[in-house]
């Protein structure tokens, strides 16, 4: 027997044998279920991107160490789903040595160019007693390298 | 009355003049860095256009009448904030010394907020040297 919902849905040879839900009710329940799955998938992708940003930042630190350039601190910020920014605080005398500073930029460019998954912008500055971590935090850098809270 | 045509090179010279006034005063190193940065932005805009450049994503060269045209293409195909567009342009369309000078100047200017705008004399030197390098490049390669 064909009922009103069968006609409304127009699913050819398929008829309703379960709960009679309108198209908007069907959409609502499938959207909610689909959205949860989608969010889980997006969360996983985002976590991978964030891990990739952290790995590339650590790689920069070790590459700079090989060049005898000392990194005092590193902070990481999420700009969007696949864009990140890493603030690299170099030892004062290393940053103010033009050769070492330039070398740091070249190495960071190279790491950025070889990372396809994400965009990672490295910003360099010299360590200073004037550095205010609260200012860095308020600018969105919520991760700090080797921080105990992580 | 018709609107006056915008001249980015004139704007660069105006910013440079302000920079030199501040430099002479020796009292405002933070504004010296800022005006060095905004002079360079306008030198790029005012000197390197119109010209053919690599499209931000396509494998082809395209004629851009102005930096605004280039930025529109960048916004459409890559996206990001206005500074991202200029960084992308300088990195991909100038030489290494100019790109690294611009990156140094950008970071010196931007990151001073993390030190409450206290400018170390060496930071000021970086800004001044970057400005000199970028200005020389732009004048030498003027379109």
Explain this structure.
The complex is a heterodimer of chains A (150) and B (143). Chain A has 5 helices and 4 strands; from the N terminus they run ααββααβαβ. Chain A is α+β, with helices and mostly antiparallel strands and 150 residues long. In chain A, strands 3-2-1-4 form a 4-stranded mixed β-sheet. In chain A, a hairpin with a 2-residue loop joins strand 1 (71-80) and strand 2 (83-90). The model of chain A has no long low-confidence stretch (mean pLDDT 89). Chain B has 143 residues and is mostly helical. Chain B is built from 6 helices and 2 strands; from the N terminus they run ααββαααα. In chain B, helix 1 packs antiparallel against helix 2. The mean pLDDT of chain B is 94. The interface between A and B is medium-sized, with 19 and 17 residues.
What's the helix and strand layout?
The complex is a heterodimer of chains A (150) and B (143).
Chain A: H1 4-9, H2 23-66, E1 71-80, E2 83-90, H3 92-95, H4 98-114, E3 119-126, H5 133-138, E4 141-144
Parallel strand pairs in A: 2-3
Antiparallel strand pairs in A: 1-2, 1-4
Helix pairs in contact in A: 2-4
Chain B: H1 8-25, H2 29-47, E1 51-54, E2 61-64, H3 67-77, H4 82-93, H5 96-111, H6 121-140
Antiparallel strand pairs in B: 1-2
Summarize this structure briefly:
Chain A is an alpha+beta fold and 150 residues long. Chain A has helices at residues 4-9, 23-66, 92-95, 98-114, 133-138; strands at residues 71-80, 83-90, 119-126, 141-144.
**Principal-axis shape of chain B:** globular
SSE sequence of chain A, one letter per element: HHEEHHEHE
Provide mean pLDDT of chain B, rounded. Answer: 94
Count the strands of chain A?
4
For the termini of chain B, the CA-CA separation is 29 Å
Using the CA coordinates, give the radius of gyration of chain B. Answer: 16 Å
Helical segment count of chain B: 6
Residues in helices of chain A, as a percent range: 40-55%
Tell me the fraction of residues in β-strands of chain A, as a range: 15-25%
Low-confidence stretches of chain B: none
- Mean pLDDT level of chain A: 89
Give the strand line-up of the largest sheet of chain B: 1-2
Output the helix-strand order of chain B: HHEEHHHH
Separation of the first and last Cα atoms of chain A: 62 Å
Portion in beta strands of chain B = 5-15%
- Poorly predicted regions of chain A are none
Approximate shape of chain A: elongated
**Oligomer designation:** heterodimer
């Amino acid at each position: 027997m064909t009922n009103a919902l069968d006609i409304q849905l127009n699913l050819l040879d398929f008829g309703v044998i379960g709960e009679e839900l309108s198209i908007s009710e069907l959409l609502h329940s499938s959207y909610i279920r689909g959205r949860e799955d989608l969010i889980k998938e997006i969360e996983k992708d985002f976590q991978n991107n964030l891990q990739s940003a952290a790995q590339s930042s650590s790689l920069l630190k070790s590459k700079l160490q090989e060049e005898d350039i000392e990194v005092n601190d590193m902070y990481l910020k999420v700009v969007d789903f696949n864009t990140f920014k890493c603030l690299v605080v170099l030892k004062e005398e290393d940053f103010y040595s033009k050769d070492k500073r330039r070398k740091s930029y070249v190495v960071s460019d190279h790491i950025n160019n070889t990372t396809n998954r994400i965009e990672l912008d490295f910003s360099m500055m010299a360590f200073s007693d004037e550095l205010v971590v609260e200012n860095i935090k308020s600018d969105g850098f919520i991760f700090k390298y080797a921080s105990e809270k992580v | 009355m018709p609107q006056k045509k915008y001249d980015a090179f004139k704007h660069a010279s105006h910013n440079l003049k302000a920079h030199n006034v501040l430099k002479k005063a020796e009292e405002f190193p933070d504004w010296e860095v800022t005006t060095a940065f905004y002079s360079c932005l306008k030198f790029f805009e005012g000197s390197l256009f119109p010209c053919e450049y690599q499209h931000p994503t396509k494998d082809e060269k395209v004629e851009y009448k102005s930096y605004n045209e280039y930025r529109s293409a960048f916004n459409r195909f890559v996206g990001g904030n206005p500074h991202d567009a200029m960084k992308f342009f300088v990195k991909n369309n100038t030489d290494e010394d100019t790109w690294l000078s611009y990156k140094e100047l950008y970071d010196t200017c931007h990151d001073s907020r993390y030190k409450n705008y206290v400018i170390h004399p060496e930071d000021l030197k970086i800004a001044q040297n970057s400005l000199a390098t970028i200005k020389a490049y732009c004048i030498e390669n003027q379109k």
